[in-house]
Known about the structure:
Blueprint: E1 3-8, H1 13-26, E2 31-36, H2 50-67, E3 72-83, E4 86-96, E5 101-105, E6 109-110, H3 113-120, H4 125-133, H5 143-148, H6 155-166, H7 168-171, H8 173-176
Parallel strand pairs: 1-2, 1-3
Antiparallel strand pairs: 3-4, 4-5, 4-6
Helix pairs in contact: 1-6
Amino acid sequence: MTQLSILVGSQNPIKINAAKQVFSNYFPGKTIHCEGLHAPSLVPEQPLGEEQTRLGAQNRVEYLMQHHNADYYCAMEGGAHQFSYGPATFAYVVIANSQHTSVNRSSNLPLPQVIFDALIAGEELGPVMDKTFNTTNIKQKGGAIGLLTNNLATRESTYTQALTLAMAPFIHTELFNNQ
């Protein structure tokens, strides 16, 4: 097989680019065909809490697997939570193929309380950040992560790291099959 087909449960170019980069890194001898498709999360537009966020990513992958054929399926879902130490945003990623599913979580980005309060009130993080920083459609660019880290980290770099780590069970199947 010289080509790998990867389906991403989103049409956001940030998510598609992150998936393509990760699969290209792991499979340098293969042609990577990476496509983003609409896949419903079945959770609110702005997931709150780790469970809701993880479920959103899992639902997207399950939808892709039920309706499309590919070598790998992946999804990324951004969420936020009020932890005991303060509010933060993070993402869950899910990668699956016909044999395995891997779930992983990104690192946290601390959020200002005023921004988290807007999320609790029903707003979505991207538009809140756009209003706060006078940007447009930041969620398809560097995201809140880029804005709050002066672009030393970005939404794409966070997804790339989480997806890279989530690939471990696919790369070392012999170790993970014994669980």
